């Protein structure tokens, strides 16, 4: 005669089985997650290694800073100069002189333009400004114009004008809408963009530089000769 089932024992056995099943499922899940993480890490490491091999500092320098006929001028104080394989268009904008009169880049076509973007709150901008003034003194402004474009707010215009007044023969211009950041892809101050006689961008340099150096004159002379 069969012994009657003990309901408590049955319940305990069932519960133990469920716990074991859940434990096995959890272990399998953890194993799968771990496997996926290993694959992701391996792929990431492989990607980084490929990027480093395919983009050595020399190769990155070649693609980011030294292209086209002007690449040889990226030396000395202009070592970080970005030059282009071919001249690039620069979106025209409206900006204002010290008296509030509007101007555009189109007005400066026919001459080489050293377009310097600066602000009074930018310490490197202040440091390099005397060298830009010296550069302008070396050239006829009708042939080479150093166009210093301030992006200061209205509350800082008086200070900006006073600062530029002691750096003759530079002329004060201001863009209160700070258009260069979006229209010219400028990400920091100072930034200097070199335009040829047709108004096309041939080079640019982000950060402080010395513009009264032989290499700077050589660059401007090369652009002016075309």
Automatic annotation (TrEMBL):
Coiled coil: none annotated. Residues 84-225 form the Thioredoxin domain. Keywords: Membrane, Redox-active center, Transmembrane, Transmembrane helix. Pfam families: AhpC-TSA. SUPFAM superfamilies: Thioredoxin-like. The keyword Membrane applies. The chain crosses the membrane at residues 29-51. It comes from the Bacteria. InterPro entries: AhpC/TSA, Thioredoxin-like_sf, Thioredoxin_CS, Thioredoxin_domain, Thioredoxin_ResA/DsbE_sf. This is Redoxin family protein. It comes from Asticcacaulis aquaticus.
